[in-house]
Write a structure and sequence with these properties.
Chain lengths: 269, 81
């Protein structure tokens, strides 16, 4: 007897007429078994006697041995959402462009950054995903995520590669050198985080201004999302007013605020 | 012919699924071997898995998957396409 026949006999449902179907093990609910659109068989193991629960568990083992997957509902939904975004023409075109130009791990981070931005743009919370990426990929991951979210891969990094590529003495190392600077130092951008105090943010912005000046970069965009980060941005602008050309340009898009500052040269008053 | 593609489970069924594969949860809420509770079940990255992080299993021999997005994509992404 195949494992689907065994399952049919336990749940008293003829599965032979179904084509591709899914089983959903739902503990704690009121029903014993419920069929949704002839595609999903919902089974509540708590409603079966212990010997049949054991048989159900043996069926799960057999399913896995045949190469099947057993996955938590919300993780399945997240994966389906990821695959949909990841498989889109735009995502694939972006990844294809950067493939071989940036390190393999950065390409993987970029893949998650595209997903994260798409989830954020659809109005859903990304706090948990962001935290997971930070834990997995550290500061470099955080920087790449932030740079992609704010469009820098399209507006800075890609044009940089194209412009270098068109120069007669082009070498991939030349691009890699500048790219490394961008993803480690983000000299064009600063991202305000709610988790950091205003004083620390101010000191980080000041340090970034020095780094950027060192590389001949005069413009920095200070990014923030939400009311408290916006207040922090205004606190910073007030604190560094003598060091930047006035007035700074402020851009708003929904909850996102960007202050574009131009650093004064040392001789400018 | 009937073909079972995926088995999914809700949060409440985590222990039931783990029991199917001879795993239980210790006092610190980590997934461990039922036959040797001192032995934690590890992900391919070598991490222990807390019950609330347990997101699934795939073949090979038995690969236990954590619920963070990177683990999900790396270990199960292709299987749900």
């Amino acid at each position: 007897m195949g494992f689907l026949d065994k399952l049919s006999s336990i749940i008293k449902v003829d599965l032979s007429k179904l084509k591709n179907f899914k089983i959903s093990i739902l503990s704690g609910l009121k029903f014993q078994v419920y069929i949704v659109n002839n595609k999903t068989i919902q089974i509540n193991p708590d409603k079966y006697p212990l010997d049949q629960q054991k048989e159900l568990q043996d069926i799960l083992k057999e399913h896995l041995e045949k190469g099947g997957l057993i996955i938590q509902d919300s993780s399945l939904s997240r994966l389906e959402q990821f695959n949909q975004i990841d498989g889109s023409i735009q995502t694939q075109a972006t990844l294809e462009y950067f493939k071989g130009k940036i390190p393999a791990q950065d390409l993987e981070i970029l893949r998650y950054s595209i997903y994260l931005k798409s989830v954020f743009d659809s109005g859903q919370s990304v706090t948990e995903i962001k935290q997971q990426l930070n834990e997995r990929f550290g500061d470099r991951g955080r920087n790449i995520c932030n740079l992609y979210s704010e469009g820098y891969f399209g507006t800075q990094i890609r044009p940089l590669y194209d412009s270098l590529f068109n120069q007669p003495n082009f070498s991939p190392e030349k691009f890699t050198q500048i790219y490394e600077l961008i993803v480690t130092e983000s000299p064009y951008a600063f991202f305000v985080s709610r988790a950091t105090s205003r004083e620390v943010v101010l000191s980080e912005v000041t340090r970034k201004m020095e780094t950027s000046r060192k590389y001949g970069i005069k413009n920095i965009n200070i990014h923030g999302i939400g009311k408290s980060n916006e207040e922090t941005i205004y606190f910073i602008l007030k604190s560094i007013k003598d060091k930047i050309l006035q007035p700074p340009e402020i851009l708003r898009k929904g909850e996102v605020v960007v202050a574009k500052i131009t650093i004064k040269d040392n001789h400018q008053n | 012919m009937a073909k079972l593609k995926i088995v999914s489970f809700n949060d409440g069924a985590r222990r039931f699924i783990l029991e199917s594969f001879g795993k239980v949860v210790d006092k610190e809420n980590y997934v461990v071997e039922k036959s040797d509770p001192s032995q934690r079940v590890l992900t391919p990255d070598g991490d222990g898995i807390r019950l609330e992080q347990f997101a699934g299993i795939k073949k090979g021999s038995e690969v236990f998957i954590k619920s963070d997005i990177v683990s999900l994509v790396r270990l199960a992404g292709e299987l749900v396409k």
